[in-house]
Amino acid sequence: MKRTLLAAGIAAFALGATPAMAKTLVYCSEGSPEGFDPSLYTAGTTFDASSKPIYNRLIEFKPGTTELRPGIAESWEVSEDGKEITFHLRDDAQFHSTDYFTPSRPLNADDVIYTFNRQMNEDNAYYKHNNGSYEYFNAMSMSELIDEIVKVDDHTVKFKLTRPEAPFLANLAMDFASIQSKEYGDQMLEAGTPEKVNQQPIGTGPFQFVNYREDAAIRYSANPDYFRGKQPLDNLVFAITSDAQVRYQKLRAGECHVMPYPNPSDIDEMKQNDDIKVLEEPGLNVAYLAYNTQQEPFDNPDVRKALNMAVNKDAIIDAVFQGAGQVAKNPIPPTMWGYNEAIEDDVYDPEKAEQMLKDAGVENLEMNIWAMPVQRPYMPNARRTAELMQADLAKVGVDAEIVTYEWGEYLKRSSSLDRDGAVILGWTGDNGDPDNFLAVLLGCDAVGGANRAHWCHEPFDKLIMEAKTLDDQDKRAELYKEAQVIFKEQAPWNTLAHSTVFMPLRQEVTGYTIDPLGGHSFEGVDLE
Amino acid sequence: MFKFVLLKLAQLIPTFIGVTIVAFAFIRLLPGDPILLMAGERGISPERYAQLEAQLGFDRSAVVQYFDFLGNLVQGDLGTSLVTHTPVMSEFMSRFPATVELSAFALLFAILIGLPAGVIAATRRGTAIDHTVMGISLTGYSMPIFWWGLLLIMFFSSTLGWTPVSGRISFLYFVDSVTGFMTIDTLLAGDWPAFLSALHYLILPAIVLGTIPMAVIARQTRSSMLEVLGEDYVRTARAKGLSNFRVIMVHTLRNALITVVTVIGLQVGVLLAGAILTETIFSWPGIGKWMIDAISRRDYPAVQGGLVLIAFIVMIVNLLVDVAYGVINPRIRY
């Protein structure tokens, strides 16, 4: 099966098309990037092609974890009141030299300030050029959080915040906060081609952009001046292949080394193939069924608890996830810090559930179950899940009807306060912070938005709001654990599952780790 | 002739306006809102939603938006993609050559196989050869593209390793885009290995896309050959003692070709439709794949612009086919 790569290698050697010993890794990516300026977009596919290979951030995620490590900032201090963060920048971060740009200086404080200004300062030329459409920056409330960014000296930057916010550091490790070159931005403005920044990116990252053929391939070469050292790979190629079955065939034939998002039904066959190894890890996600806690009789926690106990979640894991997932008991995934291991899940007990419903005075209950029309990383088949629930609920005398809408419509209608019924949905973490699940999905502020249970429970909200303001991670973890106890008692959701992420790669690939945040990065990867 | 072309062109105008209405309405009739789809599970605040809506002009009435679209269209402006923020025209033009190249090779395959097969079947009517050819063509006609494509990939690419699985050219080659046609660009660059690689990558998708047109052409050729073979002038030609080859090739085929050319012209629409599936399977970077992405993201300007351009191209090709009749068959007078 190595035939094609081998043949290609021989051909390259014979023709001198590439240096004989050049190591090229081909990644069969699942789609085309929307552009190469990560601040403008929200899709993982775009980040894989832009922020991951090309850029760095002040703080970064340690590969394969959600822990933070220094990036462009060597170190940082948080002030006593939590409202000032001072970053010390490294002085050896060099922007890429390409045939379209040559930097005259290494990265400094100006570049950091420029990166954030273009996303929040309405007078900035790039803010105007892009109509302020920095969706991720806005979604993470960055413009409300940042009061001012001050240049202390060339290699020191101070962020002044409007309120103490512990998850802010993790926000800075996200893709939209990738540090861009002010010098390059200014040059393109002067040349009247600001759109070039999005088409021919310049960063400080492990790989530099070579070229992109729309919908076909993106090529990168190793950055010779990378501050963590030149990569073992010489070239990186993204071969855009949207069909999962075709990606698998390309992997088999040796036309690519790594592929994301395999069909779950192909996993067993892949594991039996000697040329392929399959990495797997629990994903940083959750799938849930959110009741409308403002609708009768779902405003009664006992009713919600009883309905949770009526559903056989193991059967859902078997039938829908085909084993590629685990039953969820908490709203945050088990790989995240602050996860409360001690919590006991609602036991599947239809008889007791029926009794509890009776005790709550609920008889002949009719309800809607909303099933989304699309496959998501946390939920392979919502319709099938809803059907299994429907059958389980029928056994306890609840008549459930399945409703669905087109995806955009589903998202909108499920947010509305007068929604009739419980909704299947899920979440994939942005920054590895429990706040990103508990406050975003269950906080009082999010009711009518991402809080699909419309659940505003004061004791819970108080805990997560307090945890936001603390700097000490252990103390925060304690508060989150307590919040999970309240969550379980109140049962605004039936926590369904955390899906497993599979990453098939060819045997010769070494050093690849699954990113729990769902990205795909080739820093430190090698070919044997 | 000139008058005929002018008349035909004038007839295109109402059709074209109809196409713009359908293209404009089609994507908006599909449920789904580009702004909500972009926001995903997180949702979007009503203020931000209103702001984006106003920015994109979606807060105006559909009629106003349509005339805005039509007005810009007349000036050659198809708008800007909501997703990539680049002009729809340049997005389309950078991908269209890939589709044309694939369709051209598919059509070449269809004609090279379909035409001789039809002639052979007609001249051996009722024999085992005839039944075999027609059986194969019926099978080809009924083959679902998606299934057929995957089958060929699994057999020829994964198992035998003869052809690449997907893509347009090996990642080893990067040829500057001059015409956008990979086979031509590689030749212009004088890069033979790259040219061969481009051909190598074309084989399977061209066969998959060309299968249905091939079947149609074979069947049409056979039936119109049979019709012409029964004509008086063919009998006369035979009576004159002309060789069988000459009777078939000159007297029969040439006349039979008139309907075949019509059918080939109609295949352009079939090819463009089939290209959407074929491009998806073979990761072929053409307009089919681009349109699918645009539809799923509800990228209104890209979808309506793309549809109008495709419809325009199909209309022009059909016009050219009408004109081509006169060249093939001098008996047709305009």
Short synopsis of the structure:
The complex is a heterodimer of chains A (528) and B (334). Chain A is of the alpha+beta class and 528 residues long.
Structure commentary:
The complex is a heterodimer of chains A (528) and B (334). Chain A is α+β, with helices and mostly antiparallel strands. Chain A is built from 20 helices and 19 strands. Chain B contains 13 helices and no strands. The radius of gyration of chain B is 24 Å and the shape is globular. The termini of chain B are close together. Classes of the chains: A alpha+beta (528), B mainly alpha (334). The interface between A and B is large, with 59 and 53 residues.
SSE blueprint and pairings:
The complex is a heterodimer of chains A (528) and B (334).
Chain A: H1 3-15, E1 24-27, H2 44-49, H3 51-54, E2 59-61, E3 68-70, E4 73-78, E5 84-89, H4 109-120, H5 125-129, H6 135-139, H7 142-145, E6 146-153, E7 156-161, H8 168-172, H9 182-190, H10 196-199, E8 207-213, E9 217-222, E10 235-239, H11 244-252, H12 267-272, E11 276-282, E12 285-290, H13 301-310, H14 313-319, E13 325-327, H15 350-359, E14 366-370, H16 382-395, E15 399-403, H17 407-415, E16 422-428, H18 435-442, H19 458-469, H20 473-490, E17 493-506, E18 509-510, E19 526-527
Parallel strand pairs in A: 1-10, 14-15, 14-16
Antiparallel strand pairs in A: 2-3, 4-5, 5-7, 6-7, 8-9, 9-10, 11-17, 12-16, 12-17, 13-17, 18-19
Helix pairs in contact in A: 13-15, 18-19, 19-20
Chain B: H1 2-29, H2 34-39, H3 46-56, H4 62-74, H5 88-123, H6 128-141, H7 145-159, H8 182-188, H9 192-229, H10 232-239, H11 244-281, H12 287-296, H13 300-328
Helix pairs in contact in B: 1-13, 5-6, 5-9, 5-11, 5-13, 6-9, 7-9, 7-11, 8-9, 9-11, 10-11, 11-12, 11-13, 12-13
Residue ranges of chain B: pLDDT <50 for 5 or more in a row?
none
Number of H/I helices of chain B: 13
Mean pLDDT of chain A: 92
Give the termini separation of chain B. 6 Å
Oligomeric state as shown: heterodimer
Q: Using only CA atoms, what is the Rg of chain A? A: 25 Å
Please estimate the helix content of chain B: over 70%
Q: Kindly report the average pLDDT value of chain B.
A: 88
